[in-house]
Amino acid sequence: HGSDAQAANASRLALGEHLRPDSLNDPEDMLDLGARGLEFFELFLPAARRLRYESLELTDYYARFDAERGMRLHALARDVDTLGRSIDAARAELDDNEKCVTAVRTGWSGIAASAAIDAADRRNVGSAATVDRLRDLAEVLFEANLTLSAAVTNKAYKVVSLHQPTVGGYSAAQIDVLAQTYAEGKDGDNSVAKDCMEDASYWFPELADDDYRHVNGLYKDGGAGALRRLDRDDVVRRAAGITKDWLDANFRRVYEEKQQEFTAACADCAEAVHAAYDAVVAEARSIEVPPGFRPEDTPEPAPAPSAPEAQNAGTVPAAAPGPGPPPAGPAGPG
Predict the structure, then answer these.
(1) Mean pLDDT across the stretch 292-301?
(2) Beta strand segments in the chain, E
(3) Is a pLDDT exceeding 70 seen at residue 312?
(4) Which residues pair with 170 in a beta bridge?
(5) What angle do CA 239, 252, 167 make, to 5 degrees?
(6) Contact of 45 with 54, CB cutoff 8 Å
(7) DSSP 164
(8) 215-250 pLDDT tens trace
(9) CB-hemisphere CA count at 13 Å for 122?
(10) Cβ contacts of residue 39 below 8 Å, gap of 6+?
(11) Neighbour-count burial of 77, counting CB atoms closer than 10 A to its CB (0-12 exposed, 13-18 middle, 19+ buried)
């Protein structure tokens, strides 16, 4: 239906207005805007569960859609920028060190000079390799941040496209009436099914017949005529079969397509997020930082914890003085 397509397109346009080309989109903003697409399941999941097209709860959809909430990409971008500046500073210091070594090499000779210069060269080469690997890590982090942003944005865009207020021209409330007609009436006479059948007979063409519209009144009022001899179970079962055929051919197809699109959107996003994290972790683990190498203006690493002291040190017996071995146990009173 054209109105459904227009609703979905309007939702996509609303999200598109908040996109930031070639920059980071905040995951919270993107998910908030994309959540409009979850209204489809909020509207139609009850009927789908009644018809056993659906096994999940609405909370399952919320949890899968919100899986990427809490990612602070702008904070990560600031950290990457800080890392980049630190790497630039380290590279500049290494250049200065290499110049100093060159100057020493031209003005100092001998065995001691050679040993000192060789040691300085080795240290500079090792530090340069570490700086280069850290720069590679910064680049991987930068790309990962863009990947995370794009993954969540694509997910939100796909899910918001699911927004659809009607199916086959019928509202969620009307679809639920048809679902109840089948679910409650497939086994025959049922008061809920009869009420739903009579309701649907005024707007659902396949049930626009006096058999379905007045069956309650005919039996309650004890009316006369051929209609009174209708088998109530047969009328309800026929109505249930008619609604089931329409729902399977129309509602089920649309609902299951939305299910598949939602599942694919969440799976694609999760795969991209995990791949980005895996790339960062692999790059970070490949870096071997030599002892003593640390960014500028960072504190020295904390010393290893010492053995805990006895809480009641005053009650622990001291070793006996003198050259002999300490007593095996506490000394008794003299």
Answers:
(1) 57
(2) 166-167, 170-171
(3) no
(4) 167
(5) 85
(6) yes
(7) -
(8) 655 544 444 444 444 577 888 899 999 999 999 999
(9) 7
(10) 163, 165
(11) middle
Q: What is the pLDDT of residue 95?
A: 86
Paired tokens of 276: 């980005």
Identity at 301, one-letter amino acid code: P
Distance CA 114, CA 230 (A): 112
**Token reading at 302:** 């904390």
Q: Is 116 exposed, middle or buried (0-12, 13-18, 19+ CB in 10 A)?
A: middle
Residue type at 143 in one-letter notation:
E
Question: Band of the pLDDT at 1, cuts 50, 70, 90?
Answer: low
Look at 256 and 91; give whichever has higher pLDDT: 256
* Assigned token pair, 119: 């040691």
Phi, psi of 140 (to 5 degrees): -65, -40
CA torsion through residues 41, 150, 282, 81, sign:
negative
User: How is residue 207 annotated by DSSP?
Assistant: G
- Interatomic CA distance for residues 127 and 120, integer angstroms: 10
Cα distance between residue 27 and residue 121, in whole Å: 47
Structure tokens at 56: 């999940």
DSSP per residue over 13-76, as a string?
HHHHTT--TTSPPPHHHHHHHHGGGGHHHHHHHHHHHHTTS--S-HHHHHHHHGGGTT--HHHH
Tokens of 125: 């080469």
- Which pair of structure tokens corresponds to residue 197? 């059948």
Give pLDDT tens digits for 74-117. 898 899 999 899 888 888 888 888 888 888 888 887 888 788 88
Alpha carbon 40 to chain centroid distance? 19
**H/E run at residue 291:** none
Asked if 182 contacts 51 with a C-beta cutoff of 8 angstroms, the reply is yes
How far apart (Å, rounded) are the C-alpha atoms in residues 38 and 64? 11
Handedness of CA 186, 190, 196, 200 (dihedral sign): positive
